[in-house]
Protein 1
Amino acid sequence: MSFEDRELPFEFDLLRDLTEFHGPPGYEDRVRGLVTEALEEHTDEVRTDAMGNVVGTIEGESDYSVVLAAHVDEIGFMTRHVTDEGFLQLDALGGWDPRVLRAQRVAVHTEQGEITGVIGSAPPHTQDDEEKESSREVHDVHVDVGRDGESVAELVSVGDLVTMRQTTEVMGDHVTGKALDDRVCVFAMLEAARRIEDPGVTVHFAATTQEEVGLRGSEALGADLDPDLAIALDVTVANDVPGFEDGDQVTRLGEGPAIKLKDSSVITNPKVNRRLRAVAEDAGIEYQLEVLPSGGTDTAGLQRAGGATPAGAVSIPTRYLHTVTESAHVADIAATTDLLVAFLEEEDGGTDYTP
């Protein structure tokens, strides 16, 4: 029996919906609705702020508060120009590698509904060696929606959003698709909210916005909530594929969630790190340590937004980040939820995280 045919250790339908729904920075509406619905089932209060952050709160036995946050936006594009011939030119929302965009299918979100487009790629027969080796920029990309210029002008406007069109599938021991960054962590957070009962402290489960364009949602949220402790959730690089030395892999799939020590935006609180590791060891949860050379996460926004806040982070190792084939290990996803639940169930507000 293949892995695809056997029962997964979590609700795959919810994960699939979270990742397949479209929600680029600033326009996370559809995913926000799905998250709100899930949080309403398992928290005492759900609210949305002016940035679009969604927070579901479980009131604990004390006023000490912990925020568990994962960002809900995905990298995408905004239409910056429609040519007379009917091709769309794009402006990036988040960090794209133009090399992965060629010949991809996209969804164009117009006021009249969603239409399909493709990112054009000239056939190799018509390219010289220099063109084949050239590194194009996102500004060079065009979207073909299969209509003449007059028809496109009636359908598409400057500012219309464009997202990648892709399904989420189980592939052996992995789940693969678009927007696992960071919807797979949103999923783990929702699973933790479902499983937590009568916590000793108040827990805010937060789906943050606009992380991919500068941690904007988490900075606003941190100031508004002013938590006593913050734990951010995000994917991290897993370069455990051919072509990378061991020291450059960062993490490996199937070896458990990663406890972040640093990335380019944050050095996490050492005492929070140690407690996460102790909880994992006591619960028999395999984990790995993450030192990410570049890239930032909501951890930084939460750590500094409302003054100094002790902050830690748990990451799900993921291959092929910022592509439509992001891939995470089923066991790592399940173990991440286990670690979050164990950590929150033990938190009583009595630990001094001051360095």
Protein 2
Amino acid sequence: MAQTKMKRAILYNENIKSILEILSENPEGISGQAISEKLKVSRSAISKIVKNLEKLGYKFEVSKKKYKLIEKPDVPFPWEIGEEGKNVIFFKEVDSTQEKAKELAIKGKISHGTWVIAEKQKSGRGRMGRIWESPQGNFYGSVFLKPDLPLKETVKISLIGGLAVLRTVKSYEITKSIKIKWPNDIFVISENSAKKLAGVLAESFGESEKIDFTICGIGVNINNSPLDIAICLKELVGEKHNLLTDFTKRFISIFKQTYEEFLKGKWLELKTEIEINMWRGKVKVMQGEKEFTGTCVGINPDGSMVIQKQDGGYENIFYGDTIIVTSQEKSE
């Protein structure tokens, strides 16, 4: 299996991708000799790859003459994500994709636009020191970026990550109301509730107020929602074959496109799209011991949130946390 010195890392492998494509194109099965001739690799190499794939959860029917692909696991291995999979470092389990990406960045073992994705996290992190529950079946990924931004504008990366999630979710033609909650969450809104679908955690590192690099971590509930205040994509789209793999493939591509728009100077256009799809109702703002309720009316060009307070005045919010206030309940 394609691995590096990074323990347990699984990387993109062209031969694996090609073998799986050939097997998918031949649902009745195909001989090892035919695969060997198509790929110009030995039959023993094909046999070894198939055995390794079986260990990863793929199911085959293997006879003396044919290989037949029976089932693929719903796991976003790099070769299942298409060309963008070349920029993915996959782990079966990590403490946190955010910490793993940061570790690789400090060691110089990761390049701009590379994702660290895990099937499970033991110690997933959200904002404000919260734990991000990370059972198998959901999306957990962190991308290494080098934006040309001052440290104080890291919130823009959070908002771009949220917009990319929203664009991806909307690609499933969902009729429910999906909203970005400043600065980092995606919620499904109904009349009396707000349920969390995804969260974004952008952390920047640098000196003299200039970003050296940013790790943008994103968690999306795909097949299960671990908390009562959460919802998963499966609840919105119904049963769909290999939903996690399908979402990951769409999302990695859409995130890249969205971030490239940002790099090309289209922040104001992105800001407008974010505001159109933003929760612009009542929110509770928490900044340490300070708490107040107001109405989110949009964001400033620097990414800070504009709140209209209960006394009618306005305040720009540069940091802190917000809770959506619905008509009957509060949801984080």
Protein 3
Amino acid sequence: MPEQHESDSRVRRRQDLVAARRHRRRGAIAVAVSLIVIVGLALGGWFTLKKLRAEHKPTYRTYRVTVPEGLTLKATAEKFAAATSGSITAARFIEATRSGGYKYSFLEGAPAGNLEGYLFPNTYEVTSQTTARQAVDMMLKSFGRETDDLDWSRAAALGVSRYQVVIAASIIEKEVKFAEERPLVASVIYNRLKKNMKLGMCSTVLYALGEWKPKLSITDTQVDSPYNTYRIDGLPPGPICNPGFESISAALNPAATNYIFFLVTSADGHQSFTADSKQFEQWKAEQDRKQ
């Protein structure tokens, strides 16, 4: 019977071994399944989170705003409003120009809250997240960058301040159609200032009126405004538009002439210049007859 007992023991041990292996195998499978479930849940969560982020990711629209030379502050604000589909409204843009706090050395001498003349003509790229103040700051940075190489010390030699150079440049911008005439108009401005003559610039009256007219009436030239250079002495108190580089350069580098009169005398907009009042009146009468 001892042999039978030994045989039974071996059978039980073998059965226990098989059971242990089966248990370990089941345990391993359970662990593997658990890992698969955990990884699946993690991946599923990651993909869900990624999808949610993609769905809720803020979208930015990009706009290109081209601001030509000679626009007023108000027209510049309207240009931004139109080009950005109202993302930057004209009202907010104008408010941003008046809010102050812009720290640029070239603004020294300019009255607080008036950036007319310094919103540099250029093409700007903004997004739907760009604020009006950021847009204004971009234009001011452009002014500083584009005009930095000009010899601003010439202002003193011309008998004006740096701010008055910008004022003169804004008049040149509005009075001139052809680039080669800018230094000539600049010379007329400074020659008149030296002679204590009224500037008599139509562009300043139009700024005072707030509207464009092909020709001014006598009544128009009598409008009561500090920008009416038919009535005031010297330069107006501020720029009448935002001039480009060529006009600013001309205001710093006027031609050496004795001209004190100029008038459009050709159909394409070219102007004639003279120091002779009789010649000027003759040209004026000729142009009046054509109209």
Protein 4
Amino acid sequence: MPRAIYFDCFSGVSGDMALGALLDAGLSLEALREALQRLNIDGWNLRADREVRGPLAGIRVQVVASEGPFHRSLNDIRAIISASSLPAAVIERSVRIFTILAEAEARVHGTTVDQIHFHEVGALDAIVDIVGVVVGLDLLGVEQVFASPLPLGGGWVRSAYGPLPIPAPATLAILASAGVPLTSDETPFELTTPTGAAILAALATFRRPPMRLRAIGYGFGARQMERPNALRVWLGDLDEEDDSVRQQGLVLLETNIDDQPAEQIAYAADRLRAGGALDVWCTPILMKKGRAGVLLAALVPADLEKAAVDLMMRETTTLGVRRRTVERHVCDRDTREVATPLGAVRVKRKWWCGELIGAAPEYEDCARIARERGVPLATVYQMVMGRMDD
């Protein structure tokens, strides 16, 4: 069964709260630090303290950075992350979060993404926060991210531009762009930060899924409040036998495109996956007058159809999207770790009617080991396959 996480944002969400909650749910602090070293940037340290606030025990995370105020552009941050040796999926998701932040800042200030220079979120601690959350989800084997509606709070917050009303304008721009559901909460503090909003807007589907719980984690924010200033995460496996996807059915969306650059179509496909599509694919096709084109298809839960169609209309040049309902048979899946002389590798196993009928090493783990050890990727695969019965 796919590993999933649910962000229960009863007191909002921020980057440090998310990191603390992941650590409390079982993420190894040492593994997180080791992975973040691949950013190849110095001058930071990650501190995680176990605290008890009222009835709740959890973890408060602080990124301690020697760097003072520092303004970076989106290109600066993209260059830092892209130059790292982190897995490709982690790089892509991290850059996507910063892109969402840059787009929101550009809308708020009436300028372009290229002219935006981050203030708070361009600092070293914010980079470690955001990339750390993405790395943490990857280390925990999370395949799907879900979140509750978000409370925003009220009042005023200090910023590099002076006092700003809560919710911060960038936070509202992010939430509006992604169509995030909100709750009514006028606690006189900032509950959802721009960083927290961008992380969930980029990665999460906003509903609570049926799942088999494996762990719960609480991450504390810096502010001491009368109510628990905490983010709670639920870590578990999607229960595909009872999944609402099966109850509501699935919708296959398709559109033909012959007048758009390939990288823009790839971006639309990534956005569909992040928005909850179960699968997205592109097929080369030959259209009228002999023009080469691409068929973009997405398999989505019925309750996400409207959002997926809206995204396809806005992110592609298409004038129409075909739809039809479909049904499917699904194998159960789980993940186990296999020890090899070169390091541990996750393996996804395939089950049908209670019988193990297939297994495959996790590509990102194998690719990382191949790069670090200087051996062919095929050698790592063979080594893992030879030890799967151990």
